[in-house]
Design goal:
Layout lengths: L17 H16 L3 E2 L1 H4 L6 E2 L1 E5 L5 E5 L2 H4 L12 H8 L4 E6 L11 H4 L3 E3 L5 E4 L9 H19 L2 E4 L2 E6 L2 H18 L9 E2 L4 E3 L2 E4 L2 E4 L1 H9 L6 H12 L8 H12 L12 H12 L15 E9 L4 E10 L2 E11 L9 H15 L1 H6 L5 E4 L2 H11 L7 H12 L3 E4 L6 H8 L10 H11 L7 H5 L10 H9 L2 H12 L11 H9 L1 E2 L5 E5 L7 E5 L2 H14 L5 H11 E2 L3 H10 L2 H5 L1
Parallel strand pairs: 2-6, 14-17, 17-18, 21-22
Antiparallel strand pairs: 1-7, 3-4, 5-9, 5-10, 6-7, 8-9, 11-12, 12-13, 14-15, 15-16, 19-20, 20-21
Helix pairs in contact: 9-10, 10-11, 12-15, 12-17, 14-15, 20-21, 22-24, 23-24
Length: 607
């Protein structure tokens, strides 16, 4: 639990008929016999919170008892753990030629619940009073991380060998020969038996030719898009709202790894809804409708891709286009003397990047592509090769290997990503670079604010040591320096006034009116609030503009911050400096500090 306790609530029953209430009670009794539920007095606790429970129909028939822990979850601390994701699981599974898929039986019920947590996990039965959970349950805060930790302890050695993959309560075991698969499966079963973990016989599939895993069709070492997923997109009607079209585009992007030229197909649709609200209606022109229907028809051209093994030779063919404002790459693998397609990548550049030199665009394309395919590069036993049609990038990388610097600082900074992964860069004729060339010239416009590809491109650009002008910051073309939130949290914690302000806001209190020596604290409390990450901010809402959080700057660092920004932004005027400060920071008497920094600047005085 976090610092705030959940409020006490009385128990409620779902509006069921008599028969369904009896069925609900039978489920409680069944689980109580198995030790999942206990009476509170039997475990020596007093229940402080009652969670609602109800029945859910199973696909195979019968009912399942479900408890909603939504309200308790809001007051719980997140349990830190490294959770597996779909991409890493697919990378492991796609390398096997033979596979076994299984499912844990009542996985969460096999994890004991801490006694301190039981009082928040109470339930009300229809006829036999209050019970408490003594074991974990699906949806319980922290249950997923507890199951992840349990499975890591049991099958961690097999995960390290690469013969087992897991995702939630799904378990996959694989091998490249039937004998290897049998040996791996026996070892896994022995490990599960020692720990008392059970598998579901009805959900265990052994050595299928093809099987649907995580929405993808696995077939002897390759993956392709599921027919059901493709059929849904291919047959759906034209969406009426922006929300519906965004949903279509998001589902379409999930198939980008197996659909050639995916970025080109959805780019017109993304451009149409750029800057629009989710509830806005879409006016479909004939041209836009043709793009939508063509994207649906292109789903039939999906291809199966072969994900790399650690023993495969990787070839990344990159290209960047200044005129089309895009970068792209194609990943190939060489396995047993045969070249196979392993994936696509493309991204759109920002407007100001069009003014860059072509070699700088190519270098950014190389860095972004290597970063995108880095999970495969890290696992490969062989050195990966990057092929580009840019001679200056090849020569710049050779200079970097000799300890020299390129004439362009951007090229040097971008290519440093390549050296981090020990990748070689070679020249490829533009005539032989058709797939990546097309991808770079037809990259989509991405409107997702948290897109990892776009964030990496932005961070890579920002890593270049270059001059930043005040106009660039005012036009939001560059991020203002000194705005790292984690650093400001530490700085604010060192200020007594802000520490006291934070405590008052967190506890919902205010200082006594009789105290006259804390004027700054009272001024902060009039405008300050606590952000989600714990930073003290001032929320500003300007007309026709999205809300903005201004970082509160303590008095003792204000002068240093203003002076540093004044020098960093190449000595702007007082008015320009105030505009920048008011857009990102809040401080008491900030205009005076800006005026003092400008007046005391010797460079500005000489001008």
């Amino acid at each position: 639990m976090g610092p705030v306790q959940p409020p006490q609530r009385k128990g409620r029953m779902p509006q069921y008929s008599k028969n369904n209430l009896v069925e609900l009670q039978n489920k409680f009794d069944e689980l109580e016999c198995k030790g999942v539920f206990r009476k509170p007095e039997d475990v020596g606790i007093s229940v402080e919170y009652i969670n609602p429970s109800f029945l859910v129909k199973k696909a195979s028939g019968g009912f399942r008892l479900v408890t909603a822990f939504a309200d308790v979850g809001r007051y719980s601390k997140p349990q830190p753990s490294l959770m597996p994701d779909v991409d890493s699981t697919l990378r492991t599974i796609a390398q096997w030629k033979y596979i076994i898929k299984s499912d844990l039986t009542s996985a969460f019920y096999q994890i004991p619940l801490a006694k301190d947590s039981m009082k928040y996990c109470g339930v009300a039965t229809p006829y036999r009073g209050v019970r408490v959970y003594t074991r974990c349950a699906m949806g319980m805060p922290g249950s997923e991380t507890a199951l992840e930790e349990l499975m890591c302890r049991i099958v961690g050695d097999f995960l390290q060998k690469g013969c087992v993959a897991k995702l939630a309560d799904d378990l996959f075991c694989g091998g490249n020969t039937p004998e290897e698969l049998l040996y791996n499966w026996e070892c896994v079963l022995q490990s599960l038996q020692k720990s008392g973990i059970c598998l579901s016989p009805s959900k265990t599939v052994i050595c299928p030719k093809s099987i649907t895993i995580l929405g993808w069709i696995w077939s002897q070492g390759s993956i392709s898009a599921s027919t059901h997923r493709v059929a849904t997109l291919a047959s759906c009607p034209v969406p009426d709202t922006v929300r519906g079209l965004r949903s279509f585009i998001g589902a379409y992007k999930m198939l980008s790894r197996v659909i050639p030229n995916c970025s080109n197909l959805i780019a017109p649709l993304e451009e149409k809804i750029s800057g629009m609200k989710s509830a806005d209606k879409i006016i479909w022109s004939d041209m836009l409708r043709e793009h939508f229907e063509f994207a649906q028809k292109s789903l039939s051209s999906r291809k199966a891709i072969t994900l790399p093994k650690c023993s495969d030779q990787l070839w990344i063919v990159t290209d960047g286009s200044v005129t089309k404002r895009g970068i792209g790459a194609t990943l190939y693998i060489n396995r047993d003397g045969k070249v196979s397609l392993a994936g696509f990548f493309s991204a759109k550049l920002r407007k100001h990047q069009v003014l860059w030199l072509p070699c700088e665009i190519e270098a950014l394309s190389i860095a972004a592509s290597v970063k995108h395919f880095s999970p495969f590069i890290i696992q490969s036993k062989l050195q990966a090769n990057v092929l580009t049609d840019s001679k200056p990038c090849v020569q710049g990388f050779e200079k970097l290997c000799r300890g020299e610097f390129s004439a362009s600082p951007r090229v040097t900074s971008f290519l440093s990503v390549v050296s981090r992964y020990q990748v070689s860069v070679n020249h490829l004729s533009g005539r032989a670079n058709i797939p990546s060339d097309f991808a770079s010239r037809n990259a989509p416009v991405c409107t997702e604010p948290n897109c990892q590809v776009c964030c990496f491109i932005s961070r890579t650009e920002d890593s270049v040591v270059r001059a930043v002008s005040i106009q660039d910051v005012l036009n939001d073309e560059f991020r203002l320096p000194f705005t790292t939130r984690s650093a400001w949290i530490n700085i604010q914690s060192e200020c007594p006034d802000l520490r006291r302000t934070h405590a008052h806001l967190k506890q919902g209190t205010r200082p006594s009116k009789k105290l006259t020596n804390i004027k700054d604290v009272k001024r902060y409390l009039n405008v300050a609030s606590i952000a989600k990450d714990g930073l003290l901010v001032v929320r500003r809402c300007d007309p026709l503009a999205p809300p903005n959080e201004l970082i509160i700057v303590p008095r003792n660092v204000l002068d240093g911050l203003v002076t540093a920004l004044h020098i960093k932004l190449d000595h702007p005027s007082k008015h320009q400096l105030n505009l920048v400060l008011k857009r990102h920071f809040y401080a008491l008497d900030m205009p005076k500090a800006a005026e003092q920094a400008s007046d005391s600047c010797h460079t500005c005085a000489r001008l």
